[in-house]
Design a protein that fits this description.
The complex is a heterodimer of chains A (176) and B (292).
Chain A (H helix, E strand, L loop, with lengths): L17 E8 L2 E8 L4 H8 L18 E4 L2 E4 L12 E3 L13 H8 L9 H13 L8 H8 L10 H13 L4
Parallel strand pairs in A: 1-5
Antiparallel strand pairs in A: 1-2, 3-4, 3-5
Chain B lengths: L6 E3 L4 H9 L4 E4 L5 H6 L7 E4 L9 E4 L2 E5 L4 H6 L1 H6 L1 H7 L5 H6 L2 H7 L5 H8 L3 E6 L2 E6 H4 E3 L2 E2 L6 E8 L6 E7 L9 E9 L5 E9 L6 E2 L1 H7 L6 H11 L13 H25 L4
Parallel strand pairs in B: 1-3, 2-3
Antiparallel strand pairs in B: 4-5, 5-10, 6-7, 6-10, 8-9, 11-12, 12-13, 13-14
The chains are: A alpha+beta (176), B alpha+beta (292).
């Protein structure tokens, strides 16, 4: 039997139709020319090198890729980069301040040990942060926090400490 | 888990959008993308051309016009859910929308997009069937109005023609004094419903139920009105026997056979249970005269 040959490298240039996108990411204007089918999650990671946004399921279930799109939490894997053209995007890289001082939501996750492997944490933080910024009344009961977190999956912690972290974040932000 | 190749257009006017959509029989409309993009990532949907309607003039916003709530093509779920005027004139809408996926999905997904996707387990199609909503679709020959009962044809299938764009969806306000309720049973919060039930009713001076409306999702290839159960309740005092009779009468509406989620007989039991729980809740709200 003949051994399978190792394939030559894939082409450097894609044959995909390309499109210009310009958007603001973490306060900085960005322009790129990308494939029309590039997802916003891949745009952030591969085009901009912002790998803090994680990619889990790529069909909107796990919540790991959650970023802010025009100030509201959204799934970057369910948004094409071209759809986000003209939008303002904020990712986890923009949440702590420049000296590395954690945002109260991050601080609460740290204090409450609300992460183990940390893979889901950027999505969790972006979702929780957005709900605190939303200026809508928040239900901070156990079931209300579970509802708030229901769009983000964690496969390590069992959620108990994450729920505690949301409560602690509310204290730190004066919303408790 | 990456979408297949497509061409992309982002027209600015309805006229251009209809023309570009009609130019390719395999073109699809992209609104919020919360159903279409995952379907493309799975390669279940493979449109040759995506017509992104987010920049089309006049496609944003919500208006309450007399007895009608007008929801434009690009209105996101969360906008409708939080609209104070909509909450005032039809609080059933916000109650149902708590069950539509999760907030980050509701921030991006559109109401009209969910209707056009027509998942038989989804809540928004149920809402439109329950309240006799209307969809307004524009295609090359012009604009037509489609009753929700005629719009949902089958699993992921509507009477919208491929070259039509649904430009707005219309819901009535709740009648004065009407009580309402919605709930669903799911494996996990935010999942599609195994069974969901919505109810609207009024009570006459003697406390008899009038104008009972019941609709369910998850039980068939489309959302359905539960006419037999409604008939069992209309004119009754909603006593325990009446509720049991309505639950029994609803069983025939379940046509969804056993699937990977659950069995047909379980769906029938859940449907009957939800009816027996939600009709009294709607009645107590009608009696209370104010919405909680």
């Amino acid at each position: 039997m003949k051994r399978a040959a190792i394939r030559p490298s894939t082409p450097e240039r894609s044959e995909d139709p390309r499109v210009d996108v310009s958007l603001t990411v973490n306060g900085q204007p960005v322009k790129r020319t990308v494939s029309v089918r590039m997802l916003l999650s891949d745009f952030l990671r591969h085009e901009l090198g912002l790998t803090g946004t994680h990619v889990g399921c790529e069909h909107g279930v796990c919540g790991c890729c959650t970023v802010q799109i025009d100030g509201k939490a959204g799934r970057s894997c369910l948004t094409l980069a071209v759809q986000a053209s003209g939008c303002t995007i904020r990712t986890i890289e923009d949440v702590a301040d420049e000296d590395g001082v954690l945002h109260p939501v991050q601080q609460a996750f740290k204090e409450c040990h609300a992460l183990q492997c940390g893979f889901c944490t950027p999505g969790m933080v972006m979702n929780v942060l957005s709900r605190f910024e939303e200026r809508q009344p928040l239900d901070l009961s156990e079931s209300g926090i579970r509802d708030l977190l229901s769009g983000n999956l964690c496969r390590c912690t069992g959620y108990i400490n994450i729920i505690a972290a949301v409560r602690r974040a509310a204290e730190l932000l004066g919303r408790a | 888990m990456k979408p297949p190749l497509f061409r992309y257009e982002a027209p600015r006017t309805l006229r251009d959008a209809v023309a570009v959509l009609a130019s390719d029989p395999d073109a699809m409309v992209l609104a919020g993308g919360q159903s279409l993009v995952p379907a493309m990532n799975f390669r279940v949907a493979t449109p040759s051309l995506l017509v992104d309607i987010q920049h089309v003039e006049g496609f944003k916003g919500i208006a309450v016009d007399g007895d009608t709530i007008v929801i434009k093509a690009m209105t996101r779920h969360r906008e409708l859910e939080l609209d104070p005027e909509v909450r005032r004139v039809n609080p059933l809408i916000a109650e149902i929308m708590q069950h539509v996926a999760h907030v980050p999905i509701r921030n991006r997904g559109t109401v009209v997009g969910s209707l056009c996707h027509a998942d038989p387990s989804a809540e928004m199609p149920l809402l439109f069937v329950l309240l006799d909503g209307t969809l307004v679709a524009t295609g090359p020959p012009g604009t037509r109005h489609i009753a929700a009962a005629d719009f949902f044809q089958s699993f992921l299938t509507t009477s919208r023609r491929q070259d039509e764009i649904v430009v707005e969806a219309r819901l009535p306000v709740l009648p004065a004094g009407a009580g309402f309720a919605f709930d669903e049973v799911t494996r996990r919060h935010g999942d599609f419903a195994l069974v969901g039930v919505g109810c609207v009713l009024s009570l006459d001076d003697r406390g008899c139920a009038q104008n009972v409306r019941l609709a369910a999702c998850g039980i068939s290839d489309r959302p359905v009105r539960l006419k037999a159960a409604e008939a069992a309740l209309n004119g009754s005092l909603l006593a325990a026997d009446d509720l049991v009779a309505a639950a029994r009468a609803s069983a025939g509406a379940v046509t969804q056979t056993d699937d990977m989620n659950t069995s047909m007989s379980y769906r029938r039991r859940v449907l009957g249970g939800l009816i027996q729980r939600l009709v009294p809740l709607a009645a107590s709200r009608a009696r209370g005269g104010k919405w909680q």
